[in-house]
Design a protein that fits this description.
With 202 residues, the chain is α+β, with helices and mostly antiparallel strands. It contains 4 helices and 7 strands. The chain has one domain: Creatine Kinase, Chain A, domain 2, CATH 3.30.590. Helix 2 packs across helix 3.
Length: 202
């Protein structure tokens, strides 16, 4: 979820301007919290749900652009990987039967989206880390066509100055080096957004 940008690379001056804007936003946010300039009498919740697209063999389907074109709902957006999509659930009130209404809304929307995905030879799955993702899937056109993601990738590796090392011990250990943020696309999640009173804000 986010706005598209024009440039994929930034100068030092761009970065200084960005940091200054972030500081300004944080200062304004602090004042708003102190002055209680929030509508907190109506607690709301929204969420973002990230999904994987797979083909008939449960392999990553790098087809989110075609699937989203078929779904044709602005609540569904790209994520970083071409086999990822995101569903942005509008905020709603919490009390009463809201949870049941939310469930009904999610089921209806996702069922409709699945039918549209099927027309492109894909299925929508919510599974966290897709177990069929392999290093070879991170070669070639793995990234969603977006300048925003290109800029994110370029900025991270410009700052790091080296490849990304992933070293996960355990019964099924994984050690891999990546020249891009492609492994990030393997990690999908559900993110809840809660509107709370300023005094309850951590």
């Amino acid at each position: 979820m986010g706005d598209e940008i024009e440039a994929a690379e930034y100068t030092r001056e761009h970065r200084r301007e960005y940091r200054a804007k972030v500081r300004t936003c944080l200062d304004v946010f602090e004042r708003m919290l102190a002055q209680s300039r929030f509508d907190f009498e109506r607690p709301l919740t929204g969420m973002e749900i990230e999904f994987n697209l797979v083909d008939a063999d449960w392999q990553p389907a790098m087809s989110n652009a075609a699937v989203l074109e078929q779904i044709a709902d602005p609540a569904y957006q790209t994520e970083i990987g071409a086999y990822n999509i995101e569903f942005n659930v509008p905020p709603r009130r919490l009390p009463g039967t809201s949870a049941l209404e939310l469930e009904a809304h999610l089921r209806a929307s996702l069922n409709a989206a699945e039918i549209k995905a099927n027309s492109q030879g894909a299925h929508i799955v919510m599974i966290g880390i897709l177990p069929t993702v392999m290093p070879e899937h991170f070669e070639g056109a793995w990234m969603s066509p977006s300048t925003r993601y290109e800029a994110l990738n370029a900025s991270i590796f410009s700052s790091r100055g080296e490849d990304l090392l992933i070293d996960i011990p355990g019964p099924e250990p994984l050690t891999i080096q990546s020249p891009s943020i492609a492994p990030e696309s393997a990690c999908t999640s559900v993110q809840l957004h809660l509107q709370v009173a300023p005094n309850d804000f951590a």
